[in-house]
Design brief:
Helix content: 25-40%
CATH architecture: 3-Layer(aba) Sandwich
Mean pLDDT: 96
Shape: globular
Structural class: alpha/beta
Strand order of the largest sheet: 3-2-1-4-5-7-6
Distance between the termini: 7 Å
Low-confidence stretches: none
Number of helices: 6
Strand content: 15-25%
Order of helices and strands: EHEHEHEHEEHHE
Number of strands: 7
Radius of gyration: 16 Å
Length: 210
């Protein structure tokens, strides 16, 4: 049975990790696992003009703390949103350094079918940097044209509630349809039915090393 001790979540933008696997992060943290979260874009250019440039950084710190990630395990880069393809070699170097520094047992990253250009870079370079590690893609349905649900993590109601609460930290993004609580709960319910549980999150496994 695979039982990872160190988990690294790769988020192209602040909030991607919480959206894709926030319940699983809460579960890992509650189980005493060592969880790290690396976000590559703070997306200040995507904010309304009246909000401070560090709004999403502060929201990410609050959201990840809600899930149980220690502040010291949150790693924030400041690449420009939608410009990751131009920086892919530098991002690969950052990922290689994270692999060396953290030495994770499990890496969670955007799915292969994710059509957002920044997400594609983190997926592709993540596969290169962590080629000797177990890694899986998390689900962001609005970006996925296809998704192979071949791995599920069952969630308790409490773990799902923590995911919902963490997403509420992103007040600057609350207008987005995928940030709505009913969407988060409905998707968890669908994946739960598929996993014979009340709630779950689904993943694509790309490499499994036990």
């Amino acid at each position: 049975m695979f039982n990872p001790k160190k988990i690294l979540v790769l988020a192209p933008h602040t909030d991607d990790g919480e959206l894709g696997c926030g319940g699983s992060i809460a579960k890992f943290c509650a189980d005493g696992k060592e969880v790290y979260y690396a976000a590559f874009c703070l997306c200040s250019k995507s904010l309304p003009a009246m909000l401070p440039a560090n709004t999403l950084e502060l929201e990410c710190r609050k959201a990840t703390a809600t899930l149980g990630i220690p502040p010291a395990n949150l790693i924030l880069f400041n690449y420009e949103v939608r410009e990751l393809p131009q920086s892919r070699q530098q991002i690969l170097e950052e990922l290689l350094q994270l692999n060396k520094r953290i030495n994770p047992d499990l890496v969670l990253l955007p799915a292969a079918s994710d059509i957002h250009q920044d997400h594609q870079v983190i997926h592709q370079e993540g596969m290169r940097a962590f080629k000797n590690v177990t890694f899986a893609g998390y689900e962001l349905p609005w970006n996925n044209y296809s998704f192979r649900t071949n791995f599920f993590i069952r969630l308790s109601e409490g773990e799902l509630n923590k995911k919902v609460d963490s997403l509420k930290s992103y007040q600057s993004q609350s207008h987005r349809n995928y940030m709505q609580e009913d969407f988060t709960r409905s998707l968890a319910k669908v994946r739960g039915v598929q996993a014979n549980a009340e709630y779950a999150e689904a993943f694509e496994i790309y490499k499994w090393i036990a």
